[in-house]
Amino acid sequence: MKYTTLAAISSLALSVATIGHAEPQAEVLHWWTSGGEAKAVGVLQEEFAENGGSWTDMPVAGGGGDAAMTALRARVLSGNAPTAVQLKGPAIQEWYEEGVLADISSVAEAEGWADILPASIAGHMKCEDTWCAAPVNVHRVDWIWANADVLDSNGIEMPTTWDEFNAAAEKLQEAGVIPLAHGGQAWQDATVFETVVLGLGGPEFFQKALVDLDPEALTSDTMKASFDQMRTLRGYVDDNFSGRDWNLATAMVMNGEAAFQIMGDWAKGEFLAAGKVPGEDFLCSSTPGDGYLYNVDSFAMFNVDGDDKKAGQDLLAKLIVGPNFQKVFNMNKGSIPVRTDVALDEFDMCAQKSSEDMTAASDSGALLPSYAHGMALRGAQAGAITDVVTAHFNSDMSSDEAVQMLADAVANSM
After folding, report:
1. Fewest CB within 10 A of the end CB: N or C in the chain?
2. Residue 336 per-residue DSSP state
């Protein structure tokens, strides 16, 4: 009996020692494949390696993450989930409900996440009472980017209303410049659409229509006006927009082929990666109207076997929310830190404006989750809205028809 007890104690000690010395390993599935994004994720790979970790990269390009989610489902169904996966918003909870997410509460509590993360964003990272994802950043969605030289040479200021945007676009078209760089992909259509809804309806209307899915809001005159503006914007896009990736649209603004792009601040990462200077080479301004649409990137940790993979998850979670990564990554990515205690002195003017606006929006109740980027709604409802938006944008559908189709699509998705 004494020998058995000693053997058990020795075995336990050996097991603990083995876990303590497990080399952290992480296979990371993400869709950060463009220039600015790839540079940013490289920061995390480097820091992971510096802390003794072994990183296996699994980038899946295309579709704003749609292709990555298809790859993820195949991996999970085959019982071979990646260590960490770029996930966000309600999708985190959907995977939790399938029983495949790991609990990283021990890291979150040791690092004091509850004290350094905005409460609304922390809520997205929790699955019931446990922490199941690590937030990377805060992206603002409702941005207009512009080529400074193109605007200057045509005597155009950054627009502050949609009427001003339309007037500028008409002037640019007459000068032979493409007013709006856009890629004909459903998620890009949705991105533009939600900024129009926010601008024309305001934060309260956006909440009712695209978060609460209120039927009256979905069929209202304000929603019709939003589809009217989308139809107008369609006229400012070049004929070759179909299927174009977002970063290629950004490049059109960079090289002066187009004047404006409506896109989240990951577009800024492209400008910066190309050596462009904000305020000189390119301009940034929130889209017309009040409010702030946020898109928070995060990594959810999946159930894995092996102490090395679990050690990898813990190290990843710690580094992702750590102050060094939050600063260096976000300066490369174009976003702002999710931590509230990271100084922005070294960040550019667009990031500083984003942070100021986020604080103001949070105080006034105008800090809103992006529907187009998976923060506000579950997949079925978001997909139903986007299908209608894209169908309208690529046809002669009237705004009256669009709002009725919108209400019906949302109702059928429930």
Report:
1. N
2. B
